[in-house]
Amino acid sequence: MKINSITQNNYSNWQIFSLTFLRVLIGWHFLFEGLMKIYTPGWTAKSYLEGSVGPFSSIFKALASNDTILSFVNYMNEWGLVIIGLGLFIGLFEKPLKLAGILLLLLYYLAYPPFPGLTINAPLEGSYWIVNKNLVEMAALLVLLFFPSGYITGIDSFIFNKKKK
């Protein structure tokens, strides 16, 4: 999508507000989750990975079994959440960060897919048959990917409008 078609859109004020509000809420959620992991002493994804179920559980369990890989996974999870969250919150580099957010949520979804017949080893909120909160948030990011608001109400608007001039 070209920047011209984004900045010269036909969105109503309510549509712009709704898209921006959704982007900011998701950004806050990612940012908060990342900061909570960073500031929780001894936080690790080990038990989450070890308890994974579903068709890819052997991969997630293998990640937890190697301390070096686990340290990398922990670091990427914490700071990935923070960077994605902050970028979405302020509307900076939102397109690649939305894709990164979708990928991260997909990994969470695959670690604990809400498929019938799977035994879940951890209590999960908002998990229903096939659809869970991760899938819903992925869908919201996908919508935001195709109806960007950062070029209108985020820092991206200053960067890309300046380049355009």
Describe the structure.
By secondary structure, the chain is mainly alpha-helical. It has one domain (12-164). It contains 9 helices and no strands. It has helices at 3-7, 13-39, 46-50, 57-65, 67-90, 94-111, 133-146, 150-153, 155-164. Residues 1-7 have low confidence and may be disordered.
Shape: globular
Runs in which pLDDT lies below 50 for 5 or more consecutive residues are 1-7
Average pLDDT for all residues: 88
Number of domains: 1
User: Which sheet architecture does the biggest sheet show?
Assistant: none
Which sequence of SSEs, written as H and E, runs from N to C? HHHHHHHHH
Q: Quick one: how many beta strands? A: 0
- Distance linking N and C termini: 18 Å
Classify the oligomer.
single chain
